[in-house]
Design brief:
The chain is an alpha/beta fold. It is 44% helix and 22% strand. A ten-stranded mixed sheet has the order 3-2-1-4-5-10-9-6-7-8, with helices on both faces. Helix 10 (252-263) runs parallel beside helix 12. The chain is elongated.
């Protein structure tokens, strides 16, 4: 089976799905199962069992409580229950015609999902989003967002119904970089056979000295973007998907989410440059901003990186 990053082969190999038994995880599984049937991929259902650190590390707990080994008993029961529920989900997936296996691991949820997806050789990690917003999200982030940030595999955040006919209306953000080119190839691999992929480039007028006319600059930018878009479509003329190009004068994340709502898109696809550290934490990235505000499912295409580390 050919990974998504290799081209538009209809088989994506292995799809990892984060399962926490919530309604959001159920939605993620629906999307993953639909993709698995569509691409003949193998599903890996991953449940991360957080270690009960508050029982192990907090010295205020009664020593008799710890001595009775209730922590180990609780973790054992949780693991057994999770494995039983995963086996039931795996049986449902097989009944729908998808190859499937369950996996229970002990870890921090976001780190564990990212690590397991890589160690299991998944080509795609599918997650549900609880859609938190505001200060709580700023301080804590979400499991899905952090897992996507850590994982070097392609990722899909499921929102809205999966549908029986696959992703029909796909919106792809491009900055004409190699990352965006990889995202286009990957998006074609998971889009429905009769899908329309609208490629969107968002641009803004740069800051200019006061008094200088803006109209000529805007006209030049529109012309340059249109020419770049035409060259991009020409490079992919042989695609079996219908490709169109649109330019928007807008900040990228705002333009993508607004346009997705206008055309009732069922998937936004973006490439990720994979920035890390303080710069990323302060500024964010187009991919992360889109995850937070998208009205539909989001596909984040990653280019292959160094193996053996999540750093």
């Amino acid at each position: 089976m050919v990974p998504l990053s290799k081209g538009t082969d209809r088989s994506v190999g292995r799809i990892a799905v984060g399962i926490d038994f919530s309604s959001e995880a159920e939605l993620a599984l629906e999307h993953a199962a639909q993709l698995a049937r569509h691409t003949r991929a193998h599903l890996i259902l991953i449940h991360v069992l957080p270690l009960p650190a508050h029982l192990v590390e907090d010295s205020s707990y009664d020593p008799l409580f710890r001595a009775n080994n209730l922590t180990a008993d609780l973790a054992g029961r949780q693991r057994t229950d999770a494995r039983d529920l995963l086996l039931q989900l795996a049986d449902r997936c097989r009944e729908l015609g998808a190859s499937c296996e369950p996996l229970v691991i002990d870890d921090n949820p976001s780190d564990g999902l990212a690590r397991a997806a890589e160690e299991m050789g998944a080509d795609l990690l599918v997650l549900g989003s609880h859609g938190r917003s505001g200060l709580k999200r700023f301080l804590l982030g979400s499991v899905a967002e952090r897992a996507v940030r850590l994982c070097r595999r392609h990722a899909l955040i499921a929102r809205g119904p999966a549908g029986d006919n696959g992703y029909q209306r796909v919106l792809l953000g491009t900055d004409f970089s190699t990352h965006a080119e990889s995202a286009l190839l990957a998006a074609q691999a998971i889009a429905a056979p009769d899908a329309t992929i609208e490629i969107v480039h968002c641009w803004q007028i740069p800051i200019v000295p006061a008094g200088l006319p803006i109209a000529p600059l805007r006209a030049d930018m529109e012309k340059n973007v249109a020419e770049s878009g035409a060259r991009l479509l020409a490079r992919h003329r042989g695609s079996d998907r219908r490709l169109t190009f649109t330019q928007l004068e807008s900040p990228p994340a705002d333009g993508l989410t607004t346009r997705a709502a206008e055309i009732d898109a069922d998937l936004i696809a973006v490439g990720s440059h994979g920035r890390r550290g303080v710069k990323r934490w302060l500024l964010g990235s187009i991919a992360e901003q889109t995850i937070r505000h998208s009205p539909c499912s989001i596909f984040i295409a990653r280019q292959p990186g160094p193996q053996g580390s999540l750093a």
